[in-house]
C-alpha cells in the first residue's frame, strides 16, 4: 500500500477484487492504514463511470440462482447446517461489497459517513471469516470439506444495491435499514433452532451469531443515522418517505415477528416500528 491512500478510490478497487480472501485482506489493510493516519478522504471526488463491468468482484462460485430456487434444508442434518452457514457467509460477503459501494459511490456526504461505512466493511469481513472457518470445519458425505462456493446462492442484496445506485437516501432506507435489518429479526429464530440441534458445531454457530447480531445492530444504526440525516436535509418525513421509496424500488414487504428490542437499539423510532406492524 502506498504511503498515502485515497479512501474512496481504494474502496472501489477493493470492491472490484474477485478473490474473497484477497478482498478481506485488502479491507483489513485499508482499516489498518486509517489507524496509522495514512488514508485521505476527498468526499467531493466524482468517481462515476469508474467502476466498469467488474463491480462487484466475485469468485467463480457460488452459482447464483433465483431466490425461489434455493433449496430448503434442515439444520438437524450436518449438510443442512453447512448450507445455512454458507447462506450466512454469502450475506456477509455481499455486506462487505455493500459497505464498500456506499463508500465510493456517493459523493458530498459528511466525512463521518465514509468512515462509518468503512468500519462496517471491516466488521463484515470479520464476520465472513468467522463463519467461513466454521463452514470449513464441516465435512460432506464423502469426507470433503465444504467452503464458500459449495452451495448455490441468490443475489437479492446486491440487486437492491443496483436499484438504489442513483439515490443515497434510497440506499440508506432500503439496504441497511430494510434488507440488513431483517437479520436482526431472523437471527434469534435461527439460534433457537440451532440450540434445539445442540451439537457442538450448532452451538458454535450460535456463538458466532451472537457476535454478528451485536455488530449488525450497529450497522443498521448507521443506516438509520444517515437516512434520518438525509431526510432532515431534504425536509422529508422519514416514515412517509420510506413508503415512497419502498414502493418505487419494489422493496420486499417485511413480515413479523420483529426483534423490537434490537431494532430500538439500532435507532428505529416507535413510529417506524408501528409502520412495520401495519405494513406487514
Keywords:
280 residues, mainly alpha, Ferritin, globular
Please describe the biggest sheet, giving its number of strands, its sense, and whether it closes into a barrel: 2 strands, parallel
Overall average residue pLDDT: 93
Query: Which fold name fills CATH's third level, the topology?
Result: Ferritin
* First-last Cα distance: 48 Å
The assigned CATH architecture is Up-down Bundle
CATH superfamily, called what?
Answer: Ferritin, core subunit, four-helix bundle
Topology (elements, then pairings):
Layout: E1 5-6, H1 7-15, H2 20-35, E2 39-40, H3 78-105, H4 111-136, H5 156-163, H6 168-179, H7 182-197, H8 200-234, H9 238-248, H10 260-265, H11 270-279
Parallel strand pairs: 1-2
Helix pairs in contact: 1-2, 1-3, 2-4, 3-4, 4-8, 5-6, 6-8, 7-8
